[in-house]
Amino acid sequence: MGEAELFPRELTPIERELLLWLLPEDRPGYSEYRTLFAQWMVAARGRRGEGNYIIAAPTERPDNESPLPQLLAHGVVETRGGRISISIRERLGDQVEFEIMYPQLNKVFSVENELHRWTYSYWLPSQGCPACKNSLREVAMNTTAGQRFVLAVCSNDKLLWVYDEATKVNHPIPTTNFYNELMLHNNTRDPKIALDSKRLFTDLAMYPDRDLVLAFVTYNKLRAKIPLNQPIVVPEESQLSFFKRITGLFFPTNIL
Ligand SMILES: [Zn+2]
Q: Where are the domains of the chain?
């Protein structure tokens, strides 16, 4: 787009196609953003360089200083020309930030010669991974008031997200922060393990559902990823995992 870009401007047709693809109309948590993309113009560049923009209401002054909001939606389009990755962040006041990253900077990107695309936005519990189709580790979580969520992990792609049944949004979760909480709950201090968040995926079978739920509960308290009216119910600890924890023994859960 170059330096001469003027604001406010309309979304380009390809920006609109890619962004609306991440926002399925039949899912309430995403469709409210479709309305915003229909009403608001691109008002400014974001702070993260090429491809990062802010759409905003006409009365809003684009804010590039507040902490970057959490990721709402993410998808990838693989083309013969390279990978296009598209992200939309959660609403901040009367603005929404998006990012479309593509390989050839300063050239117009296109989805011609598209090979494959995937996004979290259409996934439902018990389906395979949206990226690789492999089967997933799923952990159901409920609040005391009956809100329902599913934590999903793909070890193959090293992806982690939480499905919210009420909004039908799949919230991508950053691995490092989640893994930190898991290590705190497990009292793991060995830096070789505690600092290597990729181990979440290789060691996944070692963690019972309860550990993953606890890690999500404290992660969500710190980052407020998903607003909860009531706390999430944490499963009881089995006697064997209690024994394992106090003795420091660490076995894959499937042999306990
Ligand atoms: Zn996968």
A: 13-121, 125-235
